[in-house]
Structures are given as structure tokens and as C-alpha cells.
Specification:
Length: 507
Amino acid sequence: MPAPSSSYVNQNSYVNQYNPQTFISTANSMSQNYNAPVNSVRSNRSYEEDDSEFSDEDQPTNNTTTINTNGSFYANKEKSRTNTSISSAVSNPGSSATIKLKSKNSYGLDVFLLHGSVKKVLDGDKFSSIILNEQRQSIWKRVSPSYEIQILGYQSDKKYHGVKKFTSYEIQAKIFPQRVKRRYNHFDWLHDRLVEKYPNICIPPLPGKAVTGNFDDEFLSKRKSQLELWLNKMASHPVVGQSEVFVHFLQCDEGSSKWKAGKRKAEKDDYRGAQWFCTLTVPGESVDTTNAIKEKVDKFSRACSNLENCVKNVSTSLEKISAINSSVLRKEYVHLGKKLDDFGLALNNDSLEAPFNHELTDALITTGNTYTQIGNMFGEQPKTDINPLLDRFHLYKGIIQQMPEIVQLEKQSIQTYEEFQTKPEKLEGRSLMEIAPRREIISHVTFAEINQFNRDKVDDFNEYMKSFLQQQITFYTEITECLKRAHASFDKIPINKSSNFNSSFRR
């Protein structure tokens, strides 16, 4: 494959010196960019109305809800990343002439490879860069540190005179002073915009909608945790976390003119789908030879397939343990506690009177209460350790399931380029030397995303497992302390020295 044009910036070292003010100033600039004129051309629905109209009916989605055994809901979103069409008359940035595109989708791959940007790309539109690390691997350049997002709480309310009920979540990104309220459909809208804009970035699915019980406090608390997990995963990405639409989601008050204008601008973004590639700055050298790239993406695909199966298997085991803890173990330990209580009370009988009989009864009742407490602890413990870990495994299952689509776009771009080589009539008067740099952009993006995934999984699962094991240590330490107290209750009963019970028991 011909080498890319030298017009693409070659940056060979990974810059990791962050200044928090850099992100704030960038975010403020993004927010200003979103302050579009109120009289802009509208999309197919009006946003001049009150934002409370942003409801299920306003934003139809194609969600298949999956319910697993521990009550976790995740949507299987099958959404096209390039499903938006615009006028087929597009200006050629390198010429004052207007060309007619044969492709029906001006945000599609063919249009990008043949014609590049459908409009002139301004410096203010270039937010993302790819550089090479010390191993000469493509990676995203992080211009500011990642940041934490908290969902502080949730509140259910009604509209249309109580006809329709909804829940809003109070969100604060720690890098911004303001708090905003968002409903689930706002999250769904954001997810759609991210999937639509970034064809080669992994956007995991949102936790799905519940068929029933979606205003139950336990469900809302769980969804709050899942949405917070999703937001922080997005915020940690060097591109998504600093994107205009994501920052807009975190900053603008619902119902404000800026919020409505920002929604319109995001939905009419000229740089979505393959057109987003035009806004990137990439190194000036090829990722690798075509054959080497094919081999690498095939190996990555096979590794992801195996990883997905392993994640599913771990999730299944965790779900079973959670169910056992919440039902079987809880029930059986509480049952044992009740039977020990009964045993202690049965000993407290005049016909069975003996020295320290009352002390034995008290010790047995204490032990019974201990096992009742332990049973209840087992029932509640999954909320503290197993279920949070399950949520993280489900998140990663969604991430891994997106990888084949990212790899497929890379393969498709190579196939299209090879067709241009063998069938020059498809070039529409363009040269391969003109198309090659644009093909290379896709490879840089693909491998930057693959390398991002490979680095993140180490940090994420290290954090996930350490947190889970610490909760397990705390849990079993508390059980040990309960058992020690029960054991100590028998110390009030002196041991009969003449009894040979201890020695015979040991035998």
C-alpha cells in the first residue's frame, strides 16, 4: 500500500503531561460551539417545545432487553453506525466544483475514501489525534486526564397531570461545578449520537429498560450504579470523554436553550460516521503492510471471541453464586439458626436439669442467632461484591461484542481499496495515491482503539478484582468475628476434667 501523504502530522512520542485547566478550557470552548442559533434548520421533530417531551415516544429505539438471573438489565442495541443520509451533492474540498456522489450514504466509507470530507474541515473541528508510542503503535493522544462522574441520586416524578411517570438522575462530573438531571431517554439519545458519530470507537450498550418494576427502588438503585459505570467508562476514553456531545450532556441544564441547541447540533453533525475520520490528525507513516494488518485483526478477532466466552462463563458462575447466596444459603443458615434455638430451649427443661444447663441453653441460643445473622449476611452480600462485579463483567461483555464491528470496518476499507486497485473505473477519476492516506487513517483508528482496549482491560480488571476480593475479605472477616463471639459464649461452661469426651471426639 502506498505511504500516506506527509500532510498528516507525525508525532512519535506519547505525551502524558496533563494540565487539568486544559480540559476545562477545551470543554468551555466545546460548550460555546454548541450554542447554535435558535433559528437553525430543524430536524424532523421540534426542539422548541419543552424538553419534558423528550420521552419514549419521541426517541424510538430498537432494544431487545435481556434479563439475567440477578435482575440485571442490558439492552442489545443493533444500531447501524452509518444509517444517516444527506444530499448527494457534495463539494470537493480540493476544488470549487460540485460533484455528484454515486453512494446513497454521504457518511459512508466509499464516500470518505473517494472524496474525503464533504465540507471544509476547520481547525476548530479537529479535537482528536493519534500518535505513535515507543513501540511504534498507534494510540490516542490524551490531551487532558480522565475524570470521574457521579450519579448523586434519582427522583421519580410525573407529567401530563400524573399520566406519565419518569425517573431523573442527578449527575455531576467532578471536573465541572454544575449538576444536571437526565432521564434514561437522555442516556439513550447520547448513546445513539456516540454510536452514530464514531464508527471505529467501542461504545458499549446501555443497561436496558425493564418490562415491569422500573420504578421499584431496588431496580432504580441498580440502574443508577450501572449508568454511572457506563458514564465513567465513556469519560475515560481519550476521544469520547472530551467530545462535544458528551461534555454537552454533562454540562447543560435540561430545558435550557443551550441544551436544545446542542441536541440539534449533535443530530445534524456533519462529521459523523466515516466523515469523522476527516477531523483526525494521524502519524505520517503506515501502520503496517496490508497482509500484516489483515493477520493482526484476524488474531485480535479470534482472541476477542475466546475472551467473550470466558467473560460469559465467569458471569454465569457469579450469577449462580449470587442466586445461591440470596436464596439457598440464606434460607439454610437461617433454618439452622432456628433449629439451634429450638435445641437450646428443649434443653432448658426441669427433667433435664444439670449443672450449667442454663448456660448451655444460652450458648446454643446465641449460636442459633449467630447463624441466623450469617444467613442474612449471605443474602445481602451479593449487593456489595458479586453484583457490582457482575455489572462490570456485563459492561465488558458489551465492549467485546462491539469489537467485531470495528474490525469489520477495517477489513471493509482494505477490501474497498483493493477493489480500487483492480478496478480503476471505480475511482471516479481519483488516484490511488490520493486515496491511500485516507485508507491509512482507518487503520490508525482501528489499532488505536485496539491498543486502548488492551491497556484498559488490564487497569479495569485489576481494579475490579481487587475491589471484589477486598469486599470478600471484609465479609468473611465479619463472619469469623460472629463465629468467635458464638464460640466465646460456651466458655462460661467449665470443662468436666473426668470426661473423656474430648479425646474420644478427636479419635
